Amino acid sequence: MKRNRSIPVMLAVAFTSAAPFSAPLHAEPFTFSPIVQSKAAGLPRAGAAASAGLATTGVAAANAKSPPVRGTDETLLKFSPLRSAKAAPRTTSPQYQTWMSSEIADAWNAGFKGQGATITVVDDFSSSRFITGNLGTGTQSLRHGEWTRLEASMIAPSAAMASHDFNSGRTVALAKSGLNVVNLSYGMFAKSGYTSNQISWSGQETSLISYATNGSAVVSKAAGNDAVAVGASNKAGNTDYLNVALIGTQSALFVGALDRNGTPTQKANLASYSNFAGADVTVQRQFLTVGVRGDLTNLYGTSFAAPIVSGYAAVLGSKFTTATPTQIANRLLDTARTDTINGYTASLHGRGEASIARAIAPSSID
Fold it and tell me: Cα–Cα–Cα angle for 317, 229, 57, nearest 5°?
């Protein structure tokens, strides 16, 4: 591929001067105008676009300074700008909350709390956009990344937690020892129709895709909230190319949202906003679901499904301490339940609902 044919992929939010734009996935997503710029067309590079703001179909809109919000849509995540974040509580003592699957308490009681694993959360840790929610530790206003990090740490309370701001564009560092898990509750969008060799990634996404491809880390990726198949175009004609790049990689998991934690007698449904596996068998084999109880927490979306699976991966790694990230990812996929989902079908639900109880049950892992 010739460098002068590459297409930077950016989403217009949280502007920076050196990296592709990216944004959290939300339950009822904002309508963004992504910047898709071609050097062949003589448009500026990604770093030069920060001051230009939004662009549509390659035409710069120089006066745009903030991403538009579709006024006619209900936004389930309510952002409150210019608030100060309260410190998120951090404890190694597990505290079961009603939004969690009851299976996690059994895993903790068996001594598996994520010890020895590191969960790196790549997300928004620097913007002035705050979300009010409550994961059972009291009502707080936190940034998107602070919420996803807190949620993952509550599922795996003994795991080491690391944060990487998704606007940095820098290579994501992994821990030098123990199991590495990376949580991605964001997407990289551009107009649909490009091929993978037309996408120019920053060092950040290049490293993440490499970790999933090489099996260096379990990569838990929020499937998205456009109610379309993973890798498909949404209603705005945009595609999450980070999803596309992770299809077929050995240790990446796509995570969709259910409306509850399912049981055989109280089955769950796919959340109305959640992306689904679709007809691609490769995606189906990588796709898991978990319950997202926004009715209890005020935190909706697959953004808050992925950290649960990240926590599960760390908990599983604390039992199978020599397992590789690929083995951990495969165990979660192979032990997912289908009897807890209404009308289960692989094209919607992939492998089914993640079950940490089934995943940790065997004495060894393949």
Answer: 115
Contact call for residues 21 and 35 (beta carbons, < 8 A): yes
At 8-43, the pLDDT tens digits run 443 333 222 233 344 454 333 332 222 232 222 222
Q: Which of 137, 178, 144 is closest to 163 using CA atoms?
A: 144
Higher per-residue confidence, 76 vs 176: 176
- Give the right CATH number for 103-360 from 1.10.760.10, 3.40.930.10, 3.40.50.200, 3.40.1380.20: 3.40.50.200
Tell me the mean pLDDT in the region 170-175: 97
Spatial strand order of the sheet with 7-10 comes to: 35-36, 7-10, 199-200
**Best CA proximity match to 244, nearest among 257, 258, 236, 234:** 234
Write the pLDDT tens digit of every residue in 120-130.
Answer: 999 999 999 99
Give which of 188, 163, 156, 168 is closest to 307, Cα–Cα. Answer: 156
Going by the DSSP 8-state scheme, the letter that residue 343 receives in this structure is T
* Structure tokens belonging to residue 72: 């006619």
SS3 state at 145? helix
Beta bridge partners of 197: none
**pLDDT tens-digit map of 194-232:** 887 788 889 999 999 999 999 999 999 999 999 999 999
Assigned token pair, 243: 């999803």
Domain boundaries, the chain: 3-60, 103-360
The mean of the pLDDT values for the chain is 80
Alpha-carbon distances of 6 from 3, 167, 195, 252, rounded to whole Å: 5, 20, 10, 25
Nearest by Cα to 287 from 205, 211, 229, 359: 229
> Which segments of the chain does DSSP mark as H helices, in order?
103-109, 144-155, 203-214, 241-246, 281-286, 294-297, 306-319, 325-334, 346-349, 356-360
What pLDDT shows up at residue 5? 42
Q: Which carries the bigger pLDDT value, residue 92 or residue 348? A: 348
